[in-house]
Amino acid sequence: MAMRMLFIIIPLVAFSYQWPMFDQYGNADNKIVISGFGAYRPYYNGMEEHFHAGIDIPEQENAQMLELYIWPIDYAIVVRITGVAPNQHVTIQHYNSQFTTPKEEGSTYRHVTAICDVGETLTLDNPVANGWDMHHEHLHLEYRVPGTLADYKNPFTITELQIEDNTAPTLCRGDFHFVSGNS
Ligand SMILES: [Zn+2]
């Protein structure tokens, strides 16, 4: 009996992350990535060489008609919005669900049209951006420490952001080819 009580009490730890896209029924949707995290990208079309600092998630079909938005992956306060729609970059500082304690991490949503304001408090039900007309038809999501240039974290270390990896790479002329490439 005492053991049973313990199991009831223990699990209420507030890990609050969520995937940033949902379908019209409220299910986490589009759990698809078209990039990995940290891949090397050489100089291309005026863009300096760099390591990919986030993950790319494709825009959902009929997102405008179905009013599908981009949601924060955690409770947060908006700290910075730069760029010009539809290629704005929104950075948020994560908080606990009571907004009393900032967390070490935050997240950035690139290639979007923002529908939040700097200083705004975001619960998991307050959208960050439109889910349509995204620059290059994808969301670039970074999990990082806001305000730092280098401290990018791997989004796949968050359970809620992990995706099923069920596509085996095929070997081709000595290179690995993946169905989900980098773009
Ligand atoms: Zn990207």
Can you tell me about this structure?
This protein is mainly β and 183 residues long. Helix content is 4%, strand content 32%. It is built from one helix and 13 strands. Strands 3, 5, 6, 7, 8, 10 and 11 form a seven-stranded antiparallel beta sheet that branches. A two-stranded antiparallel ribbon has the order 1-2. The chain starts with a helix and ends in a 6-residue tail after the last strand. Zinc ion binds at residues 35, 52, 54, 56, 140.
Q: Which key phrases capture this entry?
A:
single chain; 183 residues; mainly beta; Glucose Permease (Domain IIA); seven-stranded antiparallel sheet; two-stranded antiparallel sheet; 13 strands; 32% strand; disordered C terminus; binds zinc ion
Task: Describe the secondary structure blueprint for this structure.
Blueprint: H1 2-9, E1 40-41, E2 50-51, E3 55-58, E4 69-70, E5 76-84, E6 87-95, E7 102-112, E8 121-122, E9 129-130, E10 138-144, E11 152-153, E12 170-172, E13 175-177
Antiparallel strand pairs: 1-2, 3-10, 4-9, 5-6, 5-8, 6-7, 7-10, 10-11, 12-13
The site of zinc ion has 5 residues, from loops.
